[in-house]
Amino acid sequence: MAAAEEQAAQAQAAECHRIRAVAEEELDEVLAVMDAAFASLNRLSKADFVEIRSLRNPPRLVILAAEAMCIMFDLKFQPHDVFKVAHRCLLTNPGYTLSKMQHYDRDNIPEATVARIEAFLRRHDEDFTPQNAAKVSKWAAACCEWVRAMVEYHHKALVVVPMRQALQTAHDRHSASMTVLTP
């Protein structure tokens, strides 16, 4: 009987290790994307914001970056005034905006925001890339990279959260088994 229980405990321990490895692999992928996005944000300066703020007729990719940012921060806008809203709410205080981006609650992005930003990304997928945006603006490129990283993180979190729960369950079962085996 004890041998069977010990074998079951070993199987549960192996399952814990397997779940943990898969979850860590999923997280490592998205954390690399997040690190790149935050590095891009850290390279932004006040001058990058001032440059965008001073544009009278911003390039299309700057307007797309402004729209994506407005969506992520749930700012209300009409298609014709998105740059004005971004100018007023995101570009006038660079330090505040960067702080909001760095401390964005990526674990709790509202589903409505996810749906809106995904629809936006589908419409502009080929154009709205960090590489394309970098050709016109350092600010637009950083915003693009950050928005895409937040969406990717959201999707990975949907996979990893159930894995964490499964890991906790497996760990609890393993602990219970070990309690039975330990005299």
Folded structure, characterized:
This protein is mainly alpha-helical and 183 residues long. Helix content is 79%, strand content 0%. The chain is built from 8 helices and no strands. Helix 6 packs across helix 8. The longest helix is centred in the last third of the chain and has 44 residues. The two termini are 14 Å apart. The model has no long low-confidence stretch (mean pLDDT 88).
Short summary of the structure?
The chain is mainly alpha-helical and 183 residues long. The chain is 79% helix and 0% strand.
**Helix tally?**
8
Low-confidence stretches: none
Can you give the mean pLDDT? 88
* Shape, per Cα inertia axes: elongated
Distance between the termini: 14 Å
State the total count of DSSP E strands. Answer: 0
Percent of residues in helical segments?
over 70%
- Please compute the radius of gyration using only Cα atoms: 22 Å
Please summarize the sheet with the most strands: none
Strand content: under 5%
Overall structural class, as computed from helix and strand content, comes to mainly alpha
Please provide the ordered H/E string of secondary-structure elements.
Answer: HHHHHHHH
